[in-house]
Amino acid sequence: MTPGARLHAALDLLEEMAASPRPADAVTQAFLRARRYMGGGDRRAVTARAYGMLRRHARLGWWTGDGSPRERLIADLVLTDGLDRAALKGLFTGMGHDPAPLTAAERDLAARLAGQPLEPAEMPEAVRLELPDWIAPPLEASLGEGWRTAMAALNTEAPLDLRANALKTDRDGARAALAEAGIPAPGGVAEDGPLAPLALRVHGRVNLAATPAFRDGLVEVQDAGSQVAAALVAAAPGMAVCDLCAGAGGKTLALAGAMANKGRLLACDVSASRLERAKVRLRRAGVHNATLRVLDAESRKWLKRQAGGFDRVLVDAPCSGTGAWRRNPDARWRLAPADLESLQAEQDAILARAARLVKPGGRLVYVTCSLLTAENEDRVSAFLEGDAGAGFTPVPMADAWADADMAAPCPAPAGATALRLSPADHDTDGFFVAVLAKG
Ligand SMILES: C[S@@+](CC[C@H](N)C(=O)[O-])C[C@H]1O[C@@H](n2cnc3c(N)ncnc32)[C@H](O)[C@@H]1O
């Protein structure tokens, strides 16, 4: 594809994203599936432009008066790439698959923006930080002094983190298997990921799904922060463990590894389709001790019978996903204040349901990928103060960390009863973990 044709394809992708209620990654997958003729370099260039522009969405909107995807693209080429009029003309030729030549109004826009910085001093802070106005205050209140740095880190591209599957290999074995498949680039090595003992980190885009290391279940894609959250469950062989919001099984897989396939692992979710995806991943990873259960209207009685049956119950709660904005840069624009309110009610209800499943002497582990106190500390406090939390006490994070057998030192401050991870401070996605013991 010519450079102009790549821009045209990026524009088509951005227009599809703008018109679709679905998340950007789902739209991108469908877009690329429908264009199998595109080579690897073209795909990378097209998605890099589209995702880069998603990360600059508010700033480009500010400059273009919430302009169309095409106006934003022109603004991006001028403000980010520093292209001049002649360079734009060379891309917008209208020939072959290049985009149509600039109109008079578009030429005026490019002239107005020429030589301007992407972030001028007069740009409002929420725009500069790529935040919807309503969420800036609660994020600032939740993160305190370093919130601007945290927001900037949250708007960068996330690396690809993998977890070596302890059921099949160790970290060095997985690294060697990846290297054999040319991952990362030939001659490079997958470095150790932060904090989590089985984490490997790969920079740049790679076709992981095509490697034997992935197909044979030696590695799974999982952010290092998510790996830490799963490790803090401190699941061990022979235990009964329930992953109540298992989704597509990211943490279930890690729990199965920690249990060495021994004991009972129950993975539940309200979404049958996510559990279907978990099934495929569990099979590939060689997990034999997991049972999957879709939670529906009929499940109430069944769950009652499970009361007091588990050494560990993990609640990886549905949440705002603010901590994962590096991976889903469009998510911040799809979140509304009302979502946050209903999520908190859901989190309280799931915690109460989970509490009944824990054995005396067992643990309830509450996890979100949110950075907001309202979904984290406030939910744990509400739980402990309410009837559902009677008999539960928070485990000091240093103790939970020691129980999880982590090699790295505990990153939580001394005396903390919860762990907060963030891209700025820990180089992971944002996560919150609280471990609660049942007396
Ligand atoms: C953060 S995601 C889970 C991610 C998953 N644990 C992983 O590591 O890949 C939250 C999940 O909670 C599920 N969920 C929402 N409401 C639920 C409920 N009432 N009970 C159980 N699961 C629920 C959602 O379908 C979603 O899959």
From TrEMBL:
Keyword Repeat among record annotations: no
Asked whether the UniProt record includes Transferase among its keywords, one would answer yes
List, alphabetically, the Gene3D superfamilies matched: Vaccinia Virus protein VP39
| Keyword field | Methyltransferase, RNA-binding, S-adenosyl-L-methionine, Transferase
- Name-wise, this protein is 16S rRNA (Cytosine967-C5)-methyltransferase
* Family (UniProt): Belongs to the class I-like SAM-binding methyltransferase superfamily. RsmB/NOP family.
UniProt EC number: 2.1.1.176
